[in-house]
Design a protein that fits this description.
Blueprint (H helix, E strand, L loop, with lengths): L1 H37 L13 E3 L1 E17 L3 E4 L4 E6 L6 E2 L4 E9 L4 E4 L5 E4 L4 E8 L4 E6 L6 E2 L4 E6 L3 E7 L1 H6 L6 E5 L7 E10 L24 E6 L11 E18 L9 E6 L8 E10 L3 E6 L6 E3 L20
Antiparallel strand pairs: 1-21, 2-13, 2-17, 3-12, 4-6, 4-11, 5-10, 6-9, 7-8, 10-12, 13-16, 14-15, 14-17, 15-16, 17-20, 18-19, 19-20
């Protein structure tokens, strides 16, 4: 029993520690090598060659869809057309008027030279004359509603003074265009299709015109009129067209405006990613012969639908072109300059 305690148990304990030490050594030194051997030996190769696309026949439908807003057409000022005093106000604020309807009368006096005569004794007699009185009628330039009439009877006015404000009572659709959309509408049509969500059926908006965004109000600021008829004062280009009379829409409503600028069928096309430039002229890179460097090639362009662009010259059907315009190499070249003081 004494031998068991003094010899056998210490020996077994020593063997256990030896086994643990060997196992730790195997895990420490052979584990990473085994794991590396079991994993992939190297990363898969990466194909850095630029993909190619063929010049192919297709259809380009240049429909520009933008988000717009229903807006009241701006009011126009009613101006005095003669200098004098207001004789009569013929149309009050809020009155509906027709084009050419009188809204105001202005009384003007023009001094006349006196009459010179000779009396029976031969003396010169100067007789003053009454001034020449004329009445000028100010008429409405168009049909609409007088949203303001500030003129008062006997008020003195000068030519060009604003005496009222005339709202046409019509609506338009206005939409701000991005730069890309402007380029796609270099030759816009005269109409657009408008959809007002939850409103009437899509309708044709006539008189489409592109131009600079107007100021926040189409009215003369001196009249203090309601500026709600204006459009956003943000810079840029807007598309504007007239809402047909009787269409059940109201200012402030959102609308989708689809402008169809043309369709070209069975024409040569390329993705816009393959062409540098999007209007009139561009550049593509044809696949080099025998796998050589791509060849920079000028092309002429037609319609653009935002995904495809029509190619009108410079390449032929089936030509292979780089799918993406090459990016200039911006690698920094070491000029070999030494340090300061070198």
């Amino acid at each position: 029993m004494r031998a068991l305690r003094s010899v056998v148990l210490p020996t077994l304990r020593l063997l256990v520690w030896v086994v643990i030490a060997v196992a730790l050594a195997v895990l420490a030194f052979r584990g990473p090598a085994t794991e590396q051997a079991s994993g992939p030996s190297e990363a898969p190769p990466v194909d850095l060659a630029s993909p190619l696309v063929p010049v192919s026949l297709g259809t380009v439908s240049n429909v520009v869809s933008v988000q717009g807003t229903v807006a009241a057409d701006p009011a126009t000022p009613v101006r005095a057309t003669a200098a004098g005093t207001v004789r009569r106000v013929l149309a009050a604020q809020g009155a509906a008027v027709t084009a050419g309807q009188p809204v105001l009368e202005i009384r003007s006096e023009t001094e006349r030279d006196p009459v010179t005569s000779t009396d029976a004794d031969g003396n010169t007699v100067v007789t003053p004359r009454e001034p020449l009185v004329t009445t000028t009628t100010v008429k409405a330039a168009s049909a609409g509603t007088l949203t303001a009439m500030t003129a008062l009877v006997d008020q003195v006015v000068a030519v060009g003074d604003t005496v009222g404000e005339l709202s046409p009572g019509t609506l338009s659709i206005t939409a701000t265009l991005t730069q890309d959309e402007q380029f796609r509408l270099l030759a816009p049509p005269t109409t657009a299709e408008v959809t007002v969500q939850g409103g009437p059926a899509p309708f044709t908006c006539a008189g489409l015109a592109l131009g600079a965004a107007t100021s926040t109000s189409g009215t003369d600021p001196s009249t203090g009129g309601d500026p709600s008829g204006g459009t956003s004062g943000a810079p840029g280009t807007t598309a504007r067209c007239s809402v047909p009379a009787g269409t059940a829409v109201f200012p402030g409503m959102a609308a989708t405006v689809d402008v169809d600028a043309g369709t070209a069928a069975d024409v040569l096309t390329l993705p816009i990613t393959a062409v540098q430039g999007s209007v009139q002229n561009g550049t593509v890179w044809l696949a080099g012969p025998d796998g050589g460097d791509p060849v920079e090639t000028p092309v002429t362009l037609g319609l653009n639908d935002g995904s495809l662009v029509q190619i009108t010259g410079g390449v032929a059907e089936g030509d292979q072109v780089l799918e993406f315009v090459p990016v200039p190499d911006d690698t920094v070249v070491d000029g070999g300059m030494g340090g300061f003081g070198g």
